[in-house]
Amino acid sequence: MPDGALPVLDVKDLKTVFRTRQGEVHAVNSVSFDLRPGELLGVVGESGSGKSVTMMSLIGLLPTPPAEVRNGQVLFGGKDLLKTDDDTLRAIRGARIGFVFQDPMTSLNPVFSVGYQLMEPLRKHMGMNKAAARKRAQELLELVGIPDAGRRLKDYPHQFSGGMRQRVMIAIALACDPQVLIADEPTTALDVTIQAQILELVKDLRQKLGMAIVWITHDLGVIAGIADRVIVMYGGQIVEHAPVRDLFANPQHPYTRALLETIPKVHGARDDRLRVIEGQPPILGAAPEACPFRARCTHRFERCDRENPPRVPVGPDHDAACFWDAGTGGERDV
Amino acid sequence: MFDLRTDMALVKVHDLKMHFPIYTGVLRRHTGDVKAVDGVSFDIIEGETLGLVGESGCGKSTCGRAVLRLYDITSGSIVIDGDDISTMSQDDLRRKRPTMQMVFQDPQASLNPRMTVAGIIGEPLDEHTKLTKSEREARIYELMDQVGLNRDFANRYPHEFSGGQRQRIGIARALALNPKFIVCDEPIAALDVSIQAQVVNLLEDLQERLGLTYLFISHDLSMVRHIADRVAVMYLGKIVELASRDDLYSDPLHPYTKALLSAVPEPDPTLHDTAERVILTGDVPSPSNPPKGCNFCTRCPAVMDICHRVDPEFLTVRPGRQVACHHYSETKNTNVDQPVT
Ligand SMILES: Nc1ncnc2c1ncn2[C@@H]1O[C@H](COP(=O)(O)OP(=O)(O)O)[C@@H](O)[C@H]1O
Ligand SMILES: Nc1ncnc2c1ncn2[C@@H]1O[C@H](COP(=O)(O)OP(=O)(O)O)[C@@H](O)[C@H]1O
Ligand SMILES: [Mg+2]
Ligand SMILES: [Mg+2]
Predict the structure, then answer these.
(1) Does residue A187 sit within a domain?
(2) How many angstroms separate the alpha carbon of residue B271 from the centre of ligand 1?
(3) Looking at chain A, which residue has its C-alpha nearest residue B164?
């Protein structure tokens, strides 16, 4: 990636709250990140940490009510997506920002053939006629590795296996040559052997097409394999951000460190006892006025109960939201 | 050595089959069978954990349920703690139930939402024991202590608990009648990474304290490596390889085991650049219409002619190691020490 190139997507201080009958849920709290041209940005965090809500907020996919984007700026192609009208936003979603979700069955329409669902955005956003759209649809299915693509265009989603359906979703997301692909746990529901196929496909597509990708997952193994940079989310916030190798070799936030220590591995040394992170993730009932991880943290200071630590630089392109300094083992002076 | 192990086995499963009939058409004619479990054999030694791994739909859950006779099995024998339960009457089975229990994947779905924690944990006690009210209460508290649930929550309902705590309730219920053998069917699959380790450690502690024997079903190969003493790998209704944990993970023999292990993404970016990966093509065939010959022949990277014709036997190829693959059978003896790629 060329240094200093403008980010394709620049998210600043995003805040999303759900109003529910039980009160407010502060799902996303002051989240800022950028997505750089051609990179794959991994987003990790356990369920409920705010990964999906962050991505849905920035392209207007959350219904209001109950969701309310209270603050933030999302710069894409010179526009603030949070200030863009619905029609323009819909057009951007269909063409310039592609989406792939965990369960393809919820985003594929069961009553239309796969070919129709591929051709529709091509005709609508790219102005193709039927013949051109059909040809392109077939090319797209071939691109994502679906055998016998021409014949399968007329098949319906249920006629595809789970892995093949996810390939179809990727084909649809890529139809109009998007600048950004957002993939929300696209392999979580798949078996490992099928997941490995999809990950290979994505590596291959990146080389061929060069779009920037946001890849959400709770699986640090997946992230290790495909990401360039990683953001770690906890309790609706970004707690650490680093280039992938740096994150694994030199994690700074106690949550990231604990997470890396708890996951068992298939190769290498085997621990007799798993390390655990005691306790539960926080309930996001109010805007956080303290560190969201403090109750489970082994390096908690008195200050952590009073202040929500800001993200501070800890290395090149690497920051962590923590008052504990992993280098000195003492309290950080910020 | 093999005999010694068999003698110590608490659970002995031989050639177990569980086929589900398929009926089609208005006449509901029997047109075929889903061969969910198609001839599996294994022993589990008292106090050990046998891991059962494989991709979804390969028959793990069906196997686990069949071993506890939650189904009327198609054929085979199952001996648990000295009794052959494969042909046992329902009455005898009922008396046998306390020794063998199950922990399910989805604690939410397996706990009655209208019962309190005390009610859920106490239910098996009411069914199988004649405890007085105070004995019953004492036992419930004891169980809650054992699994790390706060006694003060005894009168709360399952929905008031987090996923990890609900799984503790499920485990407490499974322990109520002092079982010897527990089938754990994906007990951590629905839990977050940071909670999984808590539940796995609890299962390990309980095993040590109470001398439990586990069949631990999971699709998570790294967690199975952690918890299991021996591991069986299933593919399309059959066990393709069974070995001690260390042998299986450091030197997998069956091409499917190799592929499965190499597909697990390791949480280490430096490995991904160098690791040689076996990427399987295609999907698992349907268990109602398995391929002729070896079940894995349609996806096997090391497939040979014979594999399309003859179903390989499940043979002991080295001490304590069994595998069903022509690359390791007598007829292909020369290949035994050659790596299968
Ligand atoms: N429609 C909704 N109403 C209320 N709360 C919601 C809604 N959707 C998500 N949330 C809450 O927002 C938080 C973040 O959720 P999400 O972004 O889906 O997490 P992740 O994708 O990291 O698993 C969670 O606490 C979740 O319960
Ligand atoms: N009650 C049933 N009736 C018919 N088919 C079943 C039934 N239970 C499971 N199956 C089928 O048996 C196969 C194995 O299923 P299962 O044991 O649940 O696999 P796993 O637990 O490994 O994912 C699958 O093809 C499944 O659809
Ligand atoms: Mg999500
Ligand atoms: Mg199952």
Answers:
(1) no
(2) 33
(3) A280
Beta-ladder partners of B78: B13
pLDDT score at B275: 66
Residue B202 C-alpha to ligand 2 middle, in angstroms?
A: 29
Residue A158's domain spans which residues? 105-175
The tens digit of pLDDT for each residue in B246-289 reads: 999 999 999 999 999 999 998 999 887 666 788 898 888 999 99
- The C-alpha atoms of residue A128 and residue A108 are separated, in whole angstroms, by 21
Total structural domains within chain A: 1
Strands B75-80 and B83-84 turn out to be antiparallel
In a domain, A293, yes or no: no
When CB atoms are compared, the residue of A195, A221, A274 closest to B267 is: A221
Is the pLDDT at B335 greater than 90? The verdict is: no
Asked if A149 and A181 touch (Cβ cutoff 8 Å), the reply is no
What ipTM is given for this predicted complex? 0.87
- Residue of A53, A58, A217, A259 to test ligand 1 pocket, by largest number of atoms within 8 Å of CB: A53
Across the A/B interface, how many CB contacts are shorter than 8 Å?
118
Each residue of B109-154: pLDDT tens digit? Answer: 889 999 999 999 999 999 999 999 999 999 999 999 999 999 999 9
Tell me how far apart the alpha carbons of residues A75 and A13 are, in angstroms, rounded to a whole number.
12
Half-sphere exposure (CA, 13 Å, Cβ side) for B237?
23
CA distances from A143 to A20, A139, A210, B244 (A): 43, 6, 14, 42
Give φ, ψ of A304 to 5 degrees.
-65, -25
Residues 6+ apart with CB under 8 A from A182: A55, A59, A97, A98, A99, A100, A213, A214, A216
